[in-house]
Specification:
Layout (H helix, E strand, L loop, with lengths): L4 H7 L15 E2 L3 E2 L2 H19 L1 H10 L4 H5 L14 E6 L5 H17 L8 E5 L2 H15 L5 E6 L11 E2 L2 E8 L3 E2 L7 E2 L10 E5 L6 H13 L4 E6 L5 H5 L1 E5 L1 H6 L5 E8 L14 H27 L8 E6 L8 H13 L5 H14 L13 H5 L3 H9 L7 E6 L5 E6 L5 E6 L16 E5 L15 E4 L12 E7 L5 H14 L24 H10 L5 E6 L2 H14 L6 E2 L4 E2 L11 E10 L4 E3 L1 H13 L2 H8 L3 H8 L3 E3 L8 H13 L1 E10 L11 E2 L4 H20 L2 H9 L5 H10 L14 E3 L6 E2 L1 E3 L9 E2 L5 H15 L10 E6 L9 E5 L4 E5 L3 E7 L2 E8 L7 H18 L5 E7 L7 H4 L2 E2 L7
Helix pairs in contact: 1-2, 2-3, 2-5, 5-6, 10-11, 10-12, 10-14, 10-16, 23-24
């Protein structure tokens, strides 16, 4: 089943009236800004709400256009409601760790704004979640949201619905009702409530968090939710959608596979090896070598990762996290509890009663046999380093001690849920166990172990900051309100394979994948702007070489059934799309940056913007009239604007633009306020291209026969280099010098015209080879013509046409490219490559980045040219293009002192009639060459 509503939102719903865009999609609370994917999810939702209010029938017809057949539709009914009556819903398929709770609460603010502006009907809002810990998480996030002070969300128990002013609505306050979804029933009993009492004739905006259809009882609840929102709207949030109706109505898909493949979070590795027979034998022989070796393997891997973390921290202390190994077991207190077995085995390893080299060799062997992360996100490339890892480093990084010793335990005063552990020869703790009434272990498991000092404070609540704690032991308690970016290894011991157990495993993995390299970044190192670190280039390279283990989450489990269940569920979260990274696309060997340096612009965040704000004459007149009609104090309070903004308006800090935004005056003032007061990106200088273009290393596909494609790619690259060694001019010179015969030259020249028919290249995927392109080959295929899925290739028809016409131009004998000493170019992929031009989006009121489709570098005599080429032209409307052009002009003005010729070329067939845009439009290649 495929996602349909997202396609409708992004491809069908256009030209939304500006009053629907008068919404802040950026900020949450005092100091949090939403990520691009969170903003996109909300933007898609606003589009769907607009279309639903405008024309429900057209929305339904678009579902049909996108593949909703009658047969599929028959299976989408809920109770007696056919799908046509269920299109008032939108699902958010978002991975654990992606911040879907923030999106949910931000959606409440959006609903409030749309109601306030009479764009959607006024109806109460209800939040339903299946567990108290999820509701508590929502409450915590609402507290953070309310600190901003512009809108106060008043969270009220649904049982008090009849006692409150149900439709109370103020400009700066909104009531939101909540309840546990599993307590919505057909009777009033204890915590259970009769859904009919709260129906409100179906006039609710319902927000569901992980409230799924499943067993018979859950299916009934789905009908209750549908009836609640019959005349309102239903918003469904989950990391693991299973039902067709949830998938089809997904307004934004950022499930685990997409979350990871777009650079967020740690890459996940599922180990093939298992904790075999992790049960005590009748003779109580807990410490079999087999079990000990398996445990030692996960510990060695952890110790190696921690060693890498030390290198990272030595370069810059506040980068990344201190690694943590977590072991989660099914039982804690029974005689044969798995956690007790783990502890006893660990005690023997602490005394050096294990074969370190054998365990290390087995680990290396396992990784070599299965080197792939899930979702085809790369291979482990540090296996050989593990092979040379030393035993002393193992003890230092696991036990915080250079030498083996006995384990001692430490009690925490007044705390029966936590026990600390340390080695007798060390002053530092290394392990914490967290479980209900864990102090019972003193009576049996810890008998014979020495008790050290007592400490005062709980360590679990500060686990994110406790770099001394390397190991965390526990049970399912970790699903309750716990959040950390530290886990790099997770051991699941006898957790089970039923649905509830697998759900628990997925939750733990979801929490474990979070990452925070620095500041508020959540992406892996390859996807980040390294300029922010302000480190020398050699230090950046050192970070890059040591970072991958820290950006990985290794999962070990008890048996292959558990592993299989985990993999199946993870793949389900990946929309059953198994993507693998394509090999044999490489940087062009003909490009030598030392001889022909390829320069790219770098930008840095500076203070507030001092450039003039672009505005039309008509909107400037409206603005001045508004300012004259109100007092300064009223304007500042009503619009939450800064004093500096008023000064800039009164000083007429504007530049005239012919195109109107059409925004309401309040939104216009907010945008101007953001423009003058939010930190702006300023041109820093040019650097030589290194790792700013990487999309060709991240081309992924679900093609089954990927090995054949990789073999074909290798073959065409070898032919490409061989042919270009013997171009006609070179052959002619070799004949004149007598180095080769005329016959041999003729034979070599004929090889250039030989065409090889391939199974995949030229059929399933197309390719281009340019001696001047940054990498070879360039892969392309229009999205509508793809029979296999590819990511990070060229899919846009205008870009494919551009390459075709460029090749034809270069084949002409009179082409102007020959006049340059040298020239190169490269395709750029938005939000993957790091070459971009900052600009201020005057419609959305935020700073954005403009990603041109291609960049050209050229040298002629002493002149150096950089040309940004965009064949798509005016695809996103004139207003947006004017903003991008303004950003380019600001950058060009700042870069003038670099003595480079910098230009922007919109290669398109038609002029727009707008003078500022049309001066950048070219109808042919003459503007490039």
């Amino acid at each position: 089943m495929k996602v349909i509503l997202q396609k409708i939102a992004e491809n069908y719903i256009k030209d939304i009236p500006t009053q629907w865009l008068n919404i802040d999609l950026d900020t949450f609370g005092i100091d949090y800004n939403l990520f691009d994917y969170q903003k996109q999810a909300l933007e898609n939702t606003v589009k769907v709400l607009y279309q639903y209010q405008l024309d429900k029938e057209k929305l339904y017809q678009w579902y049909k256009l996108e593949g909703l057949t009658g047969e599929i539709e028959e299976n989408l009914t809920i109770g007696s409601y056919p799908f046509k009556q269920l299109i008032n819903r939108a699902s958010f398929w978002m991975a654990t760790g992606s911040g879907k709770t923030i999106v949910m609460i931000k959606l409440i603010e959006i609903l409030h704004s749309l109601i306030k502006n009479s764009l959607i009907p006024q109806k109460p809002i209800m939040i339903l979640a299946p567990r108290d810990e999820i509701l508590n998480q929502i409450k915590n996030h609402i507290e953070l949201f309310n600190k901003r002070g512009q809108l106060y969300i008043n969270l009220i128990n649904l049982k008090k619905w009849e006692d409150t002013n149900q439709l109370s609505f103020f400009d700066n306050q909104i009531n939101v009702y909540y309840y546990r979804a599993d307590n919505i029933t057909e009777e009033n009993k204890d915590k259970q409530i009769d859904y009919k009492t709260f129906l409100n004739n179906g006039n609710w905006y319902v927000l569901l968090d992980e409230a799924h259809k499943g067993d018979k009882q859950e299916s009934k609840r789905q009908l209750y939710y549908t009836q609640f929102s019959k005349n309102g709207f239903l918003f469904n949030f989950s990391a693991t959608f299973k039902d067709d109706i949830d998938i089809i109505t997904t307004v934004y898909n950022f499930n685990l596979q997409k979350f990871l493949s777009q650079g967020y979070g740690k890459k996940i590795y599922i180990a093939n090896s298992e904790f075999k027979n992790f049960k005590p034998k009748k003779d109580k022989e807990f410490s079999s070598e087999e079990k000990k070796l398996q445990l030692a393997k996960s510990l060695i891997l952890f110790a190696y990762i921690k060693e890498k973390a030390k290198i990272i921290k030595s370069i810059k202390e506040n980068l990344y996290h201190y690694p943590l190994l977590i072991t989660l077991a099914n039982k804690v207190h029974t005689e044969d509890a798995e956690l007790k077995i783990f502890f006893i085995l660990l005690s023997e390893i602490a005394l050096d009663k294990f074969d370190f080299e054998t365990a290390k060799n087995e680990l290396v062997k396992d990784l070599k046999e299965n080197p792939n992360y899930i979702f085809g996100l790369d291979e482990i490339d540090f296996i050989q380093e593990i092979q040379t890892f030393e035993k002393q480093k193992f003890f230092e990084n696991v036990f915080n001690s250079k030498n083996p010793s006995k384990i001692e335990y430490v009690r925490i005063k007044g705390n029966d849920r936590e026990i600390l552990f340390k080695l007798k020869n060390s002053t530092e703790h290394f392990m914490l166990i967290v479980a209900d009434k864990i102090i019972k272990w003193e009576d049996d498991t810890l008998e014979g172990y020495e008790k050290s000092e007592t400490v005062e404070e709980s360590l679990f609540k500060d686990i994110n900051e406790r770099k001394d704690i390397n190991i965390l032991l526990g049970s399912r308690i970790f699903t309750e309100g716990w959040d950390s970016n530290r886990p790099n290894v997770i051991n699941f011991i006898n957790i089970g394979v039923n649905e509830e157990a697998v759900k628990f495993v997925l939750q733990a993995i979801g929490r474990g994948i979070r990452i925070n390299p620095f500041n508020n970044e959540r992406k892996r190192f390859d996807y980040l702007n390294k300029e922010i670190l302000n480190l020398p280039r050699e230090k950046i390279a050192e970070l890059s070489n040591n970072i991958k283990p820290l950006e990985s989450l290794f999962v070990f489990a008890t048996n292959k059934k558990v592993i299989k269940a985990i993999l199946e569920q993870l793949r389900k979260q990946g929309e059953t799309l198994e993507l693998r990274t394509l090999k044999n696309i490489e940087k062009n060997k003909y490009i030598n940056e030392k001889q022909s340096p390829l320069l790219v612009p770098e930008f840095e965040e500076t203070g507030v913007n001092n450039n003039p704000y672009p505005i039309s004459d008509e909107e400037l007149n409206e603005l001045e009239e508004f300012i004259n009609n109100y007092s300064e104090k009223a304007i500042l309070i009503k619009n939450n604007a800064k004093v500096r903004t008023l000064k800039q308006i009164k000083n007429k800090k504007f530049t005239k633009t012919g195109t109107k935004t059409g925004l309401p005056i309040e939104k216009l003032i907010k945008n101007i306020d953001n423009f003058f007061n939010k930190p702006a990106m300023k041109f820093k200088g040019f650097s030589i291209l290194e790792n700013q273009i990487t999309h060709f290393k991240r081309i992924q596909t679900d093609l089954e026969d990927i090995q054949t494609l990789e073999k074909e790619l290798l073959e065409i690259i070898e032919k490409f280099y061989k042919e270009n060694e013997f171009d006609f001019k070179t052959l002619e010179e070799k004949v004149k010098k007598g180095e080769i015969s005329f016959e041999e030259a003729f034979r070599l020249s004929q090889q250039k015209s030989l065409y090889t028919a391939y199974k995949i290249l030229g059929n399933i995927i197309d390719y281009n080879l340019f001696k001047e392109h940054y990498y070879v080959p360039i892969l392309s295929k229009e999205k509508s013509k793809q029979t296999a899925y590819f990511r990070n290739i060229i899919e846009n028809e205008s870009e494919i046409r551009f390459l075709r016409e460029l090749k034809s131009y270069l084949d002409k004998p009179d082409n102007k490219a020959k006049e340059f000493d040298w020239w190169y170019f490269s395709k750029l992929v938005e939000k993957v490559d790091l070459i971009k031009i900052p600009y201020f989006d005057t419609q959305k009121g935020v700073y954005q980045n403009f990603y041109p489709d291609f960049i050209f570098w050229m040298k002629k005599d002493s002149k150096y040219f950089i040309k940004f080429v965009d064949p798509k032209g005016v695809q996103h409307g004139q207003r947006n293009l004017l903003d991008k052009i303004q950003g380019f002009e600001d950058f060009k003005k700042e870069a003038q002192k670099e003595n480079l010729d910098i230009s922007l070329i919109l290669l398109t067939k038609d002029k727009t009639g707008n003078e500022k845009i049309d001066k950048y439009i070219s109808l042919n290649f003459s503007a490039i060459f």
